[in-house]
Design the sequence.
Protein backbone atom coordinates (compact mmCIF):
# COMPACT_ATOMS: atom_id res chain seq x y z
CA UNK A 1 0.00 0.00 0.00
CA UNK A 2 1.46 3.35 -1.03
CA UNK A 3 1.75 6.06 1.62
CA UNK A 4 -0.81 8.84 1.52
CA UNK A 5 0.33 11.93 -0.43
CA UNK A 6 1.43 14.87 1.70
CA UNK A 7 0.28 18.31 0.56
CA UNK A 8 2.95 21.01 0.97
CA UNK A 9 3.40 24.55 -0.22
CA UNK A 10 6.49 25.16 -2.34
CA UNK A 11 8.03 27.03 0.61
CA UNK A 12 7.50 24.10 2.99
CA UNK A 13 8.87 21.64 0.43
CA UNK A 14 11.97 23.83 -0.06
CA UNK A 15 12.51 24.06 3.73
CA UNK A 16 12.25 20.29 4.11
CA UNK A 17 14.60 19.73 1.17
CA UNK A 18 17.15 22.14 2.70
CA UNK A 19 16.90 20.35 6.06
CA UNK A 20 17.32 16.98 4.33
CA UNK A 21 20.38 18.23 2.43
CA UNK A 22 21.93 19.58 5.64
CA UNK A 23 21.23 16.42 7.63
CA UNK A 24 22.60 14.10 4.95
CA UNK A 25 25.63 16.30 4.30
CA UNK A 26 27.20 18.70 6.75
CA UNK A 27 25.41 17.59 9.94
CA UNK A 28 26.02 13.89 9.25
CA UNK A 29 29.73 14.62 8.69
CA UNK A 30 29.97 16.63 11.95
CA UNK A 31 28.35 13.85 13.96
CA UNK A 32 30.61 11.23 12.39
CA UNK A 33 33.61 13.41 13.27
CA UNK A 34 32.49 13.65 16.90
CA UNK A 35 32.08 9.87 17.07
CA UNK A 36 35.56 9.31 15.64
CA UNK A 37 37.11 11.85 18.04
CA UNK A 38 35.40 10.19 21.00
CA UNK A 39 36.57 6.73 19.88
CA UNK A 40 40.17 7.97 19.91
CA UNK A 41 39.76 8.88 23.59
CA UNK A 42 39.75 5.19 24.47
CA UNK A 43 37.34 3.28 26.73
CA UNK A 44 33.90 3.62 25.14
CA UNK A 45 31.97 2.23 28.13
CA UNK A 46 32.41 5.39 30.18
CA UNK A 47 32.81 7.86 27.33
CA UNK A 48 29.85 10.23 27.62
CA UNK A 49 30.83 12.14 24.47
CA UNK A 50 30.78 8.96 22.40
CA UNK A 51 27.35 7.90 23.69
CA UNK A 52 25.91 11.38 23.19
CA UNK A 53 27.23 11.49 19.61
CA UNK A 54 25.82 8.02 18.86
CA UNK A 55 22.43 9.09 20.24
CA UNK A 56 22.55 12.25 18.12
CA UNK A 57 23.45 10.12 15.10
CA UNK A 58 20.42 7.88 15.69
CA UNK A 59 18.08 10.88 15.96
CA UNK A 60 19.57 12.44 12.83
CA UNK A 61 19.18 9.24 10.80
CA UNK A 62 15.56 8.86 11.98
CA UNK A 63 14.78 12.42 10.89
CA UNK A 64 16.50 11.77 7.53
CA UNK A 65 14.20 8.77 6.96
CA UNK A 66 11.16 10.86 7.93
CA UNK A 67 12.19 13.71 5.62
CA UNK A 68 12.89 11.35 2.73
CA UNK A 69 9.42 9.81 3.06
CA UNK A 70 7.75 13.24 3.23
CA UNK A 71 9.65 14.55 0.20
CA UNK A 72 8.95 11.41 -1.84
CA UNK A 73 5.21 11.63 -1.09
CA UNK A 74 4.85 15.39 -1.33
CA UNK A 75 2.29 17.05 -3.54
CA UNK A 76 3.60 20.56 -4.04
CA UNK A 77 1.48 23.61 -4.73
CA UNK A 78 -2.16 24.44 -4.39
CA UNK A 79 -4.54 21.58 -5.07
CA UNK A 80 -7.20 22.05 -7.73
CA UNK A 81 -10.15 23.67 -6.00
CA UNK A 82 -13.36 21.80 -6.66
CA UNK A 83 -15.40 23.16 -3.77
CA UNK A 84 -14.80 20.22 -1.45
CA UNK A 85 -12.65 20.05 1.63
CA UNK A 86 -9.32 18.44 0.78
CA UNK A 87 -5.72 18.68 1.89
CA UNK A 88 -4.45 22.14 1.04
CA UNK A 89 -7.71 23.97 1.56
CA UNK A 90 -8.60 26.67 4.03
CA UNK A 91 -11.73 25.48 5.80
CA UNK A 92 -14.16 27.55 7.84
CA UNK A 93 -16.43 25.58 10.16
CA UNK A 94 -19.01 26.25 12.82
CA UNK A 95 -19.42 23.88 15.73
CA UNK A 96 -23.06 22.87 16.22
CA UNK A 97 -24.77 25.21 18.66
CA UNK A 98 -22.09 27.90 18.34
CA UNK A 99 -22.48 31.17 16.46
CA UNK A 100 -18.75 31.76 15.90
CA UNK A 101 -16.71 30.20 13.13
CA UNK A 102 -13.21 28.76 13.10
CA UNK A 103 -10.90 28.72 10.10
CA UNK A 104 -8.02 26.30 9.67
CA UNK A 105 -5.76 24.84 7.01
CA UNK A 106 -6.27 21.16 6.32
CA UNK A 107 -2.70 20.11 5.68
CA UNK A 108 0.59 18.96 7.12
CA UNK A 109 2.09 19.82 10.50
CA UNK A 110 5.14 20.90 8.48
CA UNK A 111 3.08 23.91 7.41
CA UNK A 112 2.08 24.92 10.93
CA UNK A 113 5.34 26.62 11.89
CA UNK A 114 5.10 29.02 8.95
CA UNK A 115 1.47 30.07 8.88
CA UNK A 116 -0.66 32.17 11.20
CA UNK A 117 -3.69 29.91 10.83
CA UNK A 118 -4.22 26.67 12.77
CA UNK A 119 -3.33 23.52 10.82
CA UNK A 120 -5.15 20.20 11.17
CA UNK A 121 -4.06 16.97 9.55
CA UNK A 122 -6.46 14.99 7.38
CA UNK A 123 -5.91 12.20 9.92
CA UNK A 124 -6.96 14.32 12.91
CA UNK A 125 -10.52 13.75 14.17
CA UNK A 126 -11.64 17.20 12.98
CA UNK A 127 -9.80 16.94 9.66
CA UNK A 128 -11.15 13.48 8.92
CA UNK A 129 -14.70 14.57 9.79
CA UNK A 130 -14.74 17.35 7.16
CA UNK A 131 -12.58 15.74 4.45
CA UNK A 132 -14.59 15.49 1.23
CA UNK A 133 -17.44 17.67 2.47
CA UNK A 134 -18.72 20.82 0.71
CA UNK A 135 -20.14 24.10 1.99
CA UNK A 136 -23.38 23.41 3.85
CA UNK A 137 -22.45 19.81 4.73
CA UNK A 138 -22.19 18.59 8.30
CA UNK A 139 -19.58 16.22 9.73
CA UNK A 140 -19.10 14.66 13.14
CA UNK A 141 -16.17 13.40 15.16
CA UNK A 142 -15.66 11.88 18.57
CA UNK A 143 -13.87 14.04 21.14
CA UNK A 144 -11.35 12.44 23.52
CA UNK A 145 -14.04 12.44 26.23
CA UNK A 146 -16.27 10.29 23.99
CA UNK A 147 -18.70 13.07 23.10
CA UNK A 148 -19.88 13.34 19.49
CA UNK A 149 -19.21 16.80 18.06
CA UNK A 150 -20.96 18.09 14.94
CA UNK A 151 -19.41 20.70 12.65
CA UNK A 152 -20.91 22.56 9.71
CA UNK A 153 -18.71 23.52 6.76
CA UNK A 154 -19.19 27.25 6.18
CA UNK A 155 -16.51 27.95 3.55
CA UNK A 156 -13.82 26.14 1.57
CA UNK A 157 -11.12 27.93 -0.40
CA UNK A 158 -7.64 27.16 -1.71
CA UNK A 159 -4.83 28.00 0.69
CA UNK A 160 -2.45 30.73 -0.43
CA UNK A 161 0.72 30.95 1.67
Sequence:
Amino acid sequence: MDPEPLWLTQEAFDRLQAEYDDRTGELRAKITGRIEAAREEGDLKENGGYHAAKEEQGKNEARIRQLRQMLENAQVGTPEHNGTVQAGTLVTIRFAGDSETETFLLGSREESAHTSVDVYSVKSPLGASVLGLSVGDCGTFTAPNGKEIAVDVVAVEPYQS
